[in-house]
User: Which sequence fits this backbone?
């Protein structure tokens, strides 16, 4: 029976990967910054139907420190490196995000190599693929790399730099360690707890009477399909040394997302706006709401990406965009996060 380490197991993507690994009968380890989070993570997984028992163990490790990583990876067959700093608002200096993201992935790779791990699967992002390039009609694929000199948030830049550093490490110092990266678009789908992605926060704001729909466009993919692609990439011989985009079809606008919520959720979506929000108003709001500042580089820009490679090579078949969006809202309603105010 294989043993798999998932970094950042308390997070949105990490928790879904753990669920699927446990369902597949594997032994799972996960890293958290503090072991005090173990009880909360176990409760979250159990609320989703898992019964981890002693097949799930926890290790304390921080992306900014060497301590703990050797113990976490010792005896593991595979590593899913999901953890990465995601600030609630744009940091004062981009290195606050870039340095721990880049140095963290290198810490994990060194520990995995030294422990004779077979393969590391990195959770990257489409943000490492299509920023800093002229807008175009044809979708981007895995051969494209973000130009970090372009306009983007510190988080997006940190993910692009971290993934590039990982591939450079594998080429120069990886030894026999195999490596694969997964590059999801905007990740939607069911939240298991209060720790969830910025994509879900946008749905929450729509459901909680956002004044209008900003001119924003997102590739959409369900978190359960992102987790499934990680598991496929972990063991498939064809995934060695490859990148895989995870997206379900073309971009959706905020207006598209609002329309799906209205059509599928009825009275529960009565507060969802149906009118566009002018760019100037979003820019004005960003002066007073630091969290909105991260959206400014996205205004009015449509970037599509293709998941043909994941479908062709790994047999991956994601849910529809609409189902992912609806699952997002349904989970937030179940958790009592709709109508409970907007997270700061």
Assistant:
């Amino acid at each position: 029976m294989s043993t798999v380490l998932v970094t950042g197991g308390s997070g949105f993507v990490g928790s879904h990967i753990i669920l699927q690994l446990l369902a597949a009968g594997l032994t799972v380890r996960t890293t958290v910054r503090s072991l005090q989070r173990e009880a909360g993570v176990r409760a979250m997984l159990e609320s989703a139907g898992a019964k981890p028992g002693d097949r799930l163990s926890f290790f304390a490790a921080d992306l900014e420190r060497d301590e703990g990583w050797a113990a976490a990876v010792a005896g593991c067959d595979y590593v899913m490196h999901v953890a990465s700093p995601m600030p609630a608002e744009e940091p004062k200096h981009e290195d606050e995000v870039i340095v721990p993201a880049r140095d963290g992935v290198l810490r994990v790779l060194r520990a995995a190599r030294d422990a004779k791990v077979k393969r590391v699967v990195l959770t990257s992002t489409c943000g490492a693929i299509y920023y800093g390039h002229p807008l175009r009609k044809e979708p981007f694929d895995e051969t494209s790399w973000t130009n970090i000199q372009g306009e983007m948030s510190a988080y997006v830049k940190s993910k692009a730099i971290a993934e590039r550093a990982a591939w450079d490490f594998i080429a120069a110092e990886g030894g026999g360690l195999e490596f694969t990266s997964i590059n999801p678009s905007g990740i939607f789908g069911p939240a298991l707890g209060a720790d969830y992605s910025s994509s879900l926060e946008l749905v929450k704001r729509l459901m909680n009477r956002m004044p209008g729909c900003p001119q924003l466009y997102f590739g959409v993919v369900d978190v359960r399909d992102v987790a499934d692609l990680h598991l496929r990439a972990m063991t498939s011989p064809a995934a060695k040394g490859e990148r895989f985009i995870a997206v379900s079809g073309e971009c959706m606008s905020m207006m598209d997302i609002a329309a799906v919520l209205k059509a599928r959720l009825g009275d529960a979506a009565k507060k969802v706006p149906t009118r566009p929000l002018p760019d100037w108003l979003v820019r004005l709001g960003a002066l007073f709401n630091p969290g909105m500042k991260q959206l400014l580089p996205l205004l009015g820009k449509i970037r599509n990406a293709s998941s043909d490679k994941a479908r062709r090579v790994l047999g991956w078949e994601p849910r529809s965009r609409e189902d992912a969006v609806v699952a997002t809202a349904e989970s937030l309603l179940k958790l009592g996060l709709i109508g409970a105010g907007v997270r700061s």
User: Anything to note?
Assistant: The chain has twelve helices and 13 strands. The first helix runs from residue 12 to 23. Residues 171 and 177 are 10 Å apart (CA to CA). The two ends are 43 Å apart (CA to CA).
